[in-house]
Amino acid sequence: MSKIETIERHEFMSNNFQMDKNTKLKLLRIRLHTYLKGVLLIGFALLLYKLCLTNRLDLFISPRLFRYTTVALFALMILGIIQIFLGTSSKEEVFCDCCEEHKPPKTTFRSCIFYSLFIIPIITGFMFSNHTLGSSVAKNRQIQLTDGNANVKTNNHQGTNTTNNKQATSSQGASTTPQEYMTQQQYDALQKKLLASNDIRISDATYSPTVGIIENHIDQFVGKEVEIVGFVYRENGLPQNEMVVSRFVITCCIADASVYGMMARGNVSPLKDDTWVRVKGKIEKTTYHSSTVPILNITSLKKIAAPKNPYVYDIGIKLTN
Description:
Elements: H1 3-53, H2 66-87, H3 108-127, H4 135-138, E1 143-144, E2 181-183, H5 184-196, E3 199-201, H6 207-216, H7 218-221, E4 225-233, E5 242-250, E6 258-265, E7 276-288, E8 291-303, E9 312-313, E10 316-318
């Protein structure tokens, strides 16, 4: 064998060795990313399981979506196991590397950024799953003080208010278990009962519809006694003797939570924002931001502990033929 042939053969073998090394590194990299994706999917599944196990899921989504969460939990777990199986597989044919749109990040820095977008929510979900919204969030959302056709926005920030005043749960004093919808007849029955009553207690199950009915028929409720529970919220410019007794109303999930409330007047200046109170008073009318709104002239006020679930849920009317 000539010297030239020997050199060419050596270069050929070196190139093949380098190609084999690059191929193995590439497969190892793909396996690692596949494995990490499986771990993340199982992480999300375990987070959902933890929220279900501790009954904290209702802090994030409406109860009407619980059934879909169960399906998602099992789907995430199965997909995660499949990804981990693929990531630990020694079969090279499993990794075809044929999907240009879903290739893993090319650098370590990009990989860290990419996976942190998923790791951080999982970690914070396990560590702070009991965190709830309060007045600091309410300042950046639209607060519902009047009927749906004449919203009073207590700040200059635009929020999303998906609550329909003609959405109701059940009659006054009924079960606090949320329901998915009610018929128009049930809503009309709730309104009739409220109009006939002189002593109204706004329960969690009927919070948004009851407040909505009062706001839509202020003149017919003036002088009636109302009891309401919520957290203290104050908008800049409110007199020292006034506050808003507020609740967050969830339609689908915490991201779309809107703020419902009723103004109250009395000796409330010592109360700090986010203090939970039970307020009882007579309904009067006042003008706020050029709109007529109901306001409670407080006859009884009591500080209370924050409820286990501080949110109330929106329920739609079922349309029938």
